[in-house]
Design goal:
Layout lengths: L9 E6 L1 H4 L8 H16 L3 E6 L2 H8 L9 H24 L5 E6 L1 H5 L1 H16 L3 E6 L13 H11 L4 E6 L20 E2 L4 H4 L14 H13 L3 E6 L5 H6 L6 E3 L10 H8 L6 E4 L1 H8 L4 E2 L3 E5 L7 E6 L7 E4 L4 H7 L7 H5 L6 E3 L4 E3 L2
Parallel strand pairs: 1-2, 1-5, 2-4, 3-4, 5-7, 6-8, 9-12
Antiparallel strand pairs: 7-8, 9-11, 10-14, 12-13, 13-15
Helix pairs in contact: 2-4, 3-4, 7-9
Length: 375
């Protein structure tokens, strides 16, 4: 599996704050220079790279002489605004030495949840690539709120992986991989060289971040790896402090932890991946077991299978689908009718919809092309 990494030609490299900032919160120019040198070498070998970079809040904290990460969202926004241009200036200086130019891409959760804006992000990234620029992607912390915030750049890197159509996600932090136990608590904890399935046993070794200027931790890295895994892309979690870490990863060396992807039959398409991970459900539908089995076989959801409507939502909104008596979400999809309409036609055959409503948009409550199985 590691030997196959030599053939990857489009990478997303997520760089944590701990790689770019010291304990005092100061940006480390030499780290930026090393990253730029590595990316320049990769481009010479026809490997495309996009960076998902943390560090704006950390840089802002340093400029404002703050020692604790602010909790109030409006203060975080202001601190990020103070630090974002300093972060980009370091990247710009570092890449200029290799005659390369960078392009700043700031995004929010809302950008990915809106289908039109999501496609705009994709098209923008493709055009940046055509122009030969290096995308530097970050959450738009200066305007993000609790409702639209990713919460960490690990999960953002996984969403960018599918939007950019990358074939490998590399997450660099201050930890050299995933361990079987919490390495901060258990000195005899062992690094996992490869993970096939991210289950509860794997998550036992995951810890939250310990640095005041950072967000996330190993748990969010595993969440990101799982998202990439379902898109059919491998993830490599490694320490950004290791020398020549990217080169060694692409040489197939046993470094970090490799999370292998789903095979071709089980991987999600770009649209299904967007449905699964970018949207927040605005309501839910309870369906009978027969309808649940039909969905698992790749069929659409019909009105006859709907038993209960929960929440208020409009046509085209995302909703979660539960089987009768189940607490775990079975599927998520975009509805062809609003909640009031579905309440009127639940349990009816498709041929009865027009009589019940006086009109009919579609035979399906949710078409199979607008639906993804989550369970």
């Amino acid at each position: 599996m590691r030997k196959q990494l030599q053939n990857k030609k489009r990478l997303i490299i997520k760089i944590g704050s701990s790689i770019l900032v010291n304990e005092e919160g100061q940006l480390l120019s030499q780290r930026f220079r090393k990253i730029a040198k590595t990316v320049a070498e990769l481009r010479e070998n026809k490997v495309e790279v996009a960076l998902v970079s943390s560090g704006a809040i950390a840089a802002g904290m340093s400029r404002l002489n703050m020692h604790r990460k602010p909790k109030r969202i409006s203060l975080k926004q202001a601190v990020a605004a103070a630090g974002q241009h300093a972060l980009m200036f370091e990247y710009e200086k570092a890449f200029a030495k290799h005659q390369l130019k960078v392009a700043q891409v700031l995004v929010s959760r809302d950008d990915f949840a809106n289908r039109r804006r999501y496609l705009n992000i994709r098209h923008s990234l493709f055009e940046i690539r055509k122009l030969g620029l290096i995308p530097i992607i970050n959450e738009n912390d200066s305007v993000a709120t609790d409702e639209i915030k990713f919460g960490d750049n690990d999960n953002l890197s996984a969403l960018v992986t599918s939007a950019y159509e990358a074939d490998l996600l590399i997450i660099l932090s201050d930890v050299d991989g995933v361990y079987d136990l919490d390495p901060y608590t258990y000195p005899d904890a062992k690094r996992l060289s490869m993970i096939e399935k991210i289950d509860e046993q794997v998550k036992l070794g995951a810890t939250d971040t310990l640095r005041p200027s950072s967000t996330g931790g190993m748990r969010t890295k595993l969440e990101a790896a799982e998202k990439a895994q379902h898109y059919g892309v491998a993830t490599l979690i490694a320490s950004g402090h290791s020398s020549n870490v990217i080169q060694r990863i692409l040489q197939g060396k046993d470094i970090g932890t490799l999370i292998i992807p789903q095979d071709g039959d089980n991987r999600l398409s770009a649209k299904k991946h967007w449905l699964a991970y970018n949207l927040k459900a605005l309501g839910s539908l309870r369906i009978d077991p027969g309808a649940g089995e039909a969905l698992k076989k790749g069929r659409s959801l019909l009105s006859s299978g709907v038993m209960k409507v929960e929440g208020n939502f409009n046509k085209g909104d995302p909703v979660d689908i539960f089987c009768k008596g189940e607490k775990k979400v079975l599927a998520r999809g975009l509805t062809s009718y609003n909640s009031i309409e579905i309440e009127k036609i639940k349990g009816l055959k498709s041929s009865q919809i027009e009589k019940a409503l006086g009109y009919k948009y579609m035979d399906e409550i949710i078409h199979r092309n607008d639906l993804v199985i989550l369970a």
